[in-house]
Amino acid sequence: MGTISNDPPATLIQDLKITTQNVSLVFPSRKTERKKSMFLSNIDKVLNFPVETVHFFPSHEDFPPHVAAEKLKTALSELLVPYDFLAGRLRSNPETGRLQIDCNSAGIGFAVASSDYALDDVGDLVYPNPAFGQLICKSVDSLEQDDQPLCIVQVTSFKCGGFAMGVATNHVTFDGLSFKIFLDNLAAVTAGKPLAVTPCNDRLLLAARSPPCVTFPHHELDKFHDSNPPVIDATSEALDFKVFRLTSDDIARLKEKAKASATGSHVSDARITGFNVVTALVWHCKALSWDNKESNLDRVSTLLYAVNIRPRLIPPLPISYTGNAVLTAYARATCKEIDEAPFSRLVELVTEGAKRMTDEYARSAIDWGDIYQGFPNGEFLVSSWWKLGFDEVEYPWGRPKYSCPVVFQRKDIILFFPDIDDNNGVNVLVSLPSKEMSKFKTLFHKYLA
Fold first, then answer.
1. How far is CA 377 from CA 223, 329, 387, in A?
2. pLDDT at site 228
């Protein structure tokens, strides 16, 4: 059954002893067509916050860290031609106040650093070590705050000859799928090959209609009247931090549990996916762990998760679309229903969220954002990095030993990320107040028993 990493591994290093040798700017390798600005969709513009990922590579005889760093730097310069917006800067349109990217070729950041440790000394790469944040360069100190790059890459060498590539991007630039394509292109150009995929940079493809037309109630969204909204409200509570590891066998048993209880249900075998069953399990545990002295069963719990809308639009968006082409799907139920319903019903409710995301629903949600400036609204959001495939990118020095986000503790975000040893397994990162975590843990084990 699933296991829990209650405490940091005994070998966890909290200070990687990083020394930064150099921080510079990388510019497009040749002059790009000067655009006044890049339009940002209503999905893009509410995602104005950093996303940080780290990609670990073992030593390679032909590509020591300094050689890999130079190849990456050169490849990034080449990539800034087709990805010209990445070398730009965030600005507000002086006439409308709308956030946009000034495509001014001001460059991205590139840092070279070293650690006093070998990669094996770092320990369990799957465990979300806060020290991994040291593998990210968060700003270029020589630049003013309003002139910071939209992307900074840091290459950190380890004593063993391995290295880490830490990438910080503003979320307005990419969603997970388009970032994976960016990495595929980076790997291809680093190897002297042509682009794996030609990026589509036309963000107007997701512009709101004129006039905007909201045709659905959007329970997954809420209004704000501030120019810098949160994605979901943060909490100042003290939180416990645990990783729940589900093996491929655990997930197979959850699928069987859903199928066995599906008599009379509208959920088909095709909908009983790994993501849907794990999300249903997490929803059950999260909703019923709510710490409230009053009756909990009448409370409505709303689960949020992202859905790729590229294939759902008419006509479909290009797979190579570089912007954020994900919208928030939702599932809602009372805690009583979540407690008493068969597992197949929870899975069915989860699947309905994605099924709801038709072309018209997606356009309605985008138009809703034009009118109300909305952001996701729910009890918690499942953020899945599970099947993005960052660790499948083939660089000249091989695939990453592991790729992961640099995580932070949020009560309202539950993170799915892949396992290093089990391709079909998943790690579920949960942050909750101590009393709620105790309930979550009990429910988790009970459901898997």
1. 9, 10, 24
2. 45
**For residue 227, what pLDDT is reported?**
46
The type of residue at 26 is V
Query: Distance between CA 41 and CA 308 in Å, rounded?
Result: 15
N- to C-terminal Cα separation, the chain: 7
Task: Give the whole-angstrom CA distance, residue 277 versus residue 280.
Answer: 5
Q: Which of these ranges, 173-177, 202-206, 267-271, has the smallest mean pLDDT?
A: 267-271
- Residue 254's φ and ψ, nearest 5 degrees, are -65, -40
Is the Cα torsion angle 63, 67, 73, 75 positive or negative in sign?
A: negative
163-170 and 151-157 as β-strands: parallel, antiparallel, unpaired? antiparallel
Question: Helices marked H in 313-406 — which ranges?
Answer: 335-340, 343-355, 359-372
Superfamily of domain 221-448: Chloramphenicol acetyltransferase-like domain (3.30.559.10)
CB 310, CB 177: distance < 8 Å: yes
- Contact at 8 Å (CB) between 143 and 42? no
Domain residue spans of the chain: 3-206, 221-448
Which tokens belong to 432? 């909750």
Rounded to whole angstroms, the Cα distance separating 179 from 165 reads 14
Q: Among all residues, which ones are annotated catalytic?
A: 171, 394
Tell me the per-residue pLDDT of 94-129, one tens digit each, with 9 for 90 and over.
Answer: 888 899 999 999 999 999 999 999 999 998 898 888
Using CA atoms, how far residue 97 sits from 45, 130, 207, 211, in Å, is 12, 36, 16, 19
Query: Quick one: 3-206 is in which CATH superfamily?
Result: Chloramphenicol acetyltransferase-like domain (3.30.559.10)
Q: How far is CA 28 from the centre of its chain?
A: 26
Measured distance CA(415)–CA(208) in Å, rounded? 30
Residue 49, judged by CB atoms within 10 A of its CB (0-12, 13-18, 19+), counts as: exposed
Asked whether the beta carbons of 47 and 101 are under 8 A apart, the reply is no
Which pairs from 405-411 meet CB under 8 Å and 24+ separation? Answer: 405/51, 405/52, 405/53, 405/54, 406/52, 406/53, 406/54, 406/128, 406/132, 406/133, 406/135, 406/136, 406/166, 407/128, 409/239, 409/241, 410/232, 410/234, 410/235, 411/235, 411/237, 411/239, 411/380
Question: What is the pLDDT at residue 207?
Answer: 97
Candidates 412, 361, 325, 381; CA nearest to 218 is 361
Helix and strand totals (H; E) in the chain: 9, 18
